[in-house]
Specification:
single chain; alpha+beta; seven-stranded mixed β-sheet; five-stranded antiparallel β-sheet; 4 helices; 12 strands
Length: 216
């Protein structure tokens, strides 16, 4: 066998292996997006039933500042978060909202609350408590929320993730103490499907190149 033929086979095999990697990864992403997401494209995680005897349940500070990264990062990734909260007591009126950390800290200053510290893989939630009064002013009266919903039944908010420092808050609509709710968190990013399809396309091109090199 001529040296040129051997080189062509080796190079073709390298391209074929590369194409296999792209095809497998792209296939996994695409299938996961189609099979695991709901009709709205969200990947949902249901938490264990969460509750508190205080006036609020909050997350810790969610720091999404792009610095030192590029400011356009969040627009490119295009992630949307969906929160759904349903009061265990069907007559209760719940409030769920997302607000800037600084504003939420001022609003809940001196108010007793439980902060979510961690969520296990099974959905179990761990808390840390902050003491204070068990009555807050109604959260619906505040105007700093970037996304919020309030009322009886299932409350749903959708928020396009943006740069900044944020806190998620779950309360009773009137600011009273005692919360018990089922919560589902969903995440959607159309970029995942685009990446999966792109990797399939690149893998296909590499496979064609591999075959062409070997047969040429």
């Amino acid at each position: 066998m001529k040296a040129g033929r051997i080189i062509a086979i080796v190079v073709g095999a390298v391209f074929a292996l590369a194409s296999l990697g792209f095809l497998v990864a792209g296939g996994v992403l695409t299938i996961a997006y189609v099979a695991e997401s709901d009709d709205g494209g969200y990947f949902d995680e249901t938490l264990d039933r969460i509750g508190t005897t205080t006036a609020a349940i909050t997350t810790g500070d969610i720091d999404l500042r792009a610095d030192p990264g590029p400011d356009w990062l969040f627009e490119t990734v295009d992630v949307t978060v969906r929160l759904q909260a349903t009061a265990v007591n069907g007559d209760a009126s719940l409030f769920v909202g997302i607000g800037p950390t600084a504003d939420v800290d001022v609003y809940l200053s001196g108010v007793a609350r439980d902060e979510i510290e961690d969520v296990s893989a099974s959905g179990r939630v761990g808390y840390s408590g902050a003491s204070g009064t068990n009555q807050a002013t109604p959260p619906v009266d505040e105007d700093f929320w970037v996304a919020s919903a309030s009322g009886a039944g299932t409350q749903t908010i959708e928020w396009d993730v943006a740069e900044g420092e944020w806190v998620v808050v779950l309360m009773n609509s009137d600011g009273s103490a005692g919360i018990l709710a089922d919560v589902t968190v969903g995440i959607r990013s159309d970029l995942l499907l685009a990446i999966g399809v792109s990797m399939l396309a690149v893998g296909g091109v590499l496979l064609i190149v591999a075959v062409a090199i070997i047969l040429a």
